[in-house]
């Protein structure tokens, strides 16, 4: 338990919370006291288990190393009890009888907290120093500090309750201020031990897109992931960062190298991944790819057996989802469909919306994975196909909106309106949202790096039109938008971003620029 910096606000509720530092992941969150346990009393729960993820084991080793060092130095002796410390940190009305019952060490602490310096009002102690990056928490111990005059925060050896961490009440790792280093000290007896840490550095793309990290307690289940495309890459990286044990496979094997370096295991084929893992996720481009991975040689179906779990995160048609579900359940496996709402950036940031239907127990077992990959997961029922229908309707609205934006900007250009001015008006008005603002900038810059490939958007429109036909619901706007996206694909923009629909709306000569833009797309993928 550490003291937060001045700019970290405490949750506005009546429950008692503490600001907790997490070994291993090296991040921070407000945690309710009822979910905090003393480390020495509960550490045996995790000893000797072969199913604990590697990252979680390293965190336990780091705690144990520090705890043993403090035991050896005698700095854990004569500490007040947990109840006494809580009373000291959250005092009510002072009572002479209560004070007399405290141990000697607690009285000393209470005296220090009650007596302000001469001529000054008492202040909350805040830690303001910066310190260098601390890496390898499992192998390096904190160094001693002789700076007795530095105000110290309190840190105790507790473990967060291994239940849903949705209570995190303001996890702060993604906060910009938390990218500065923390400096905190233990208050163990009469000596202070200085510990410094900084949030781990990310590569250029991740820094620019401000990846939001969360406090996630990883499941001990072994996780498999098939498909390392635009979406899968970010999702797998967030699973690894949160401490999950992940085995990956991709049709292009070279894409696995980066993730193996980051701590993932590599499967030889889909069947191999399914056999070695408890839960296997798949996220690929379309129905054809899903069927190949499922029913092909050494595919998922060859590895499925009773008790194995399979989660389909690809956006495909209802028929494909139902065929996959039937095949999995016929072999005794559990099935969950979980298509995601979001593009490349939310996938990198762990900010996807995850729509689920199917096996409820499997949904619960996937909780920590969904926490790592998304900002919210929805369980829509046990009927397979429900999540797919919602995802297709969601993407229909997205496609209509982007097509309308493309036509609007094309018209603005034709009537002599400056597109930068038009973009600024949109960003400041009632239409302002992340999607509109980002696509406006892509159109202004003339660069269509594939955050959400145009060909995938057109595929989703085609699927939703089929869904509308099945229930005799006319979709006039979606049909018109689909034709515009089809035109953009014919012009060579299929692998570019969905914002390239502007080129089709602008009705320029297809032979003039399509080739050059296509080359730009291939160079920037």
From TrEMBL:
Q: Which residues form the PWWP domain?
A: 5-67
Q: Which BP terms does GO give this entry? A: transcription elongation-coupled chromatin remodeling
Domain (6-phosphogluconate dehydrogenase NADP-binding): residue spans on this chain: 222-381
Span list, region Disordered = 86-177
Q: Which GO terms describe its molecular function?
A: DNA binding; NAD binding; NADP binding; nucleosome binding; oxidoreductase activity
Kindly list the places in or outside the cell where this protein is found, as annotated in its UniProt entry.
Chromosome
Question: Where on the tree of life does the source sit, at the highest rank?
Answer: Eukaryota
Compositional bias of kind Basic and acidic residues: 112-124, 164-177
One Pfam match: PWWP
TM ranges are none
Q: Where is the composition biased (Polar residues)?
A: 141-163
Q: Name one GO cellular component term.
A: chromatin
| Segments forming domain 3-hydroxyisobutyrate dehydrogenase-like NAD-binding | 385-503
Q: Which UniProt keywords apply?
A: Chromosome
Principal localisation: nucleus
PROSITE patterns per UniProt = 3_HYDROXYISOBUT_DH (PS00895)
Regarding protein family, the annotation reads: Belongs to the HIBADH-related family. NP60 subfamily.
What is this protein identified as? Cytokine-like nuclear factor N-PAC
The opening ranks of the lineage are: Eukaryota, Metazoa, Spiralia, Lophotrochozoa, Mollusca
